[in-house]
Amino acid sequence: METHLLEFRILSLLRNRNAFLKYSSILKEHLFGSKHTKYIYKLLLFYHRQIKSKTTVPLSSLFTLVSSRIKENEAEKYKEIIRKVKKFPFADEAIADDIVRKFAQRQLLKIMIMDALQGLDRDEHLDIAKLRSRLDEALVIDSTEVLETAYNYFSNPMQRMEEDRNKLRIPTYLSPEIDRAMDQGLSTGELALIMAPTKVGKTMFLLNIAYNAVKHGKKVVYVTLELSKAKIASRFDQLVTRKPKEYLNIHPGIVFKYIKKLKTKGGGLMIKDCTSARLSPVELGLYLERLRKDFEFDMVVVDQVDLMYSPKEYKERRYELSSIVVSLRRMGATMGIPVWAATQANRAAGEAGVTTLWDIAEDIGKANWADIILALSQSPEDKEENIMWLDVVGNRIGESNPRVMLTTNYTLMSLKGNVSKPKEKE
Length: 426
Known about the structure:
9-stranded mixed sheet; Rossmann fold
């Protein structure tokens, strides 16, 4: 984003008194790049300090302040900045927090580097302590909200409990036992990982999770990094119509009929194809914020997390994967949505036909950040009998870790919960 445009949007955000109070500890006048944006920031600061009765600074008040304080031949430039502040607001404030913090961090680091370079050019003694202070100021920005906010346990517990009861929870609808273990579904800000070896059924599982949510009136974004949108859509066709692919190839018109019927349920489905380009959690977050303007989704599905990347460099891939899972969980919390994601289990689990928590590929750290981890297991004999086993192998949401047998229908891409089976004691 072009620097001045970003400054206009931040100034637009700061017109709101609550936003100004929230970011006043990290946004300072010297962080803005031009004398004009610096001055508009000072006017906002003056207004919020002097007039506390209004939640938003009127643009007319900014124009008046400029007219009364700036020479007539210079005022027009400042008024043009105010017009741009009006023209470029944040469309969704959910994304603003990350952008504001990154802007402040980048500007502080830029100032630190420029001070150091100027000192070297003038052959001056570098004030290492001052540079270190600037760096610490930049680093602490990510912790500002953590340092400033806390929940008072003694304040209104009834309200807290009521809010928790009323949280949106989206069941899997695959098995009552699994949904009970998840407190009747995945809730806002929670991350679920489905883990399985290659070719065992991660995509099939996520397709069913997404379809069941849509069928019950929820809007879902399905992000695919492995199969093209055409293949994912084709598999949804099989689920929606309950017809095999061969039949649909001969009678394609039936798909329209079933989709039209599904649409009456009030749900929606967007398929984001990221198979031809790399995708980071930040890029996914930006895409979802833009999408949210026209498609108010309830849940995001990522297939699969191991194919994502982080722009930050790590010594080992396993650390990068853990950071990606952390970012997805934070994204879900920021947006107030549940997130489902697939992750790979190692080859040993595939050969044994049994998947445990310790079979998670690359790094167990991925599991440490998930609210619930489910594992799919399938031996060659299970596949012949059209079954697979679903185990809750990690659970921060509920107390039980059930094992459920799923009946598979690969022709129709469907899964169905069947007779449960207690786990064998290790």
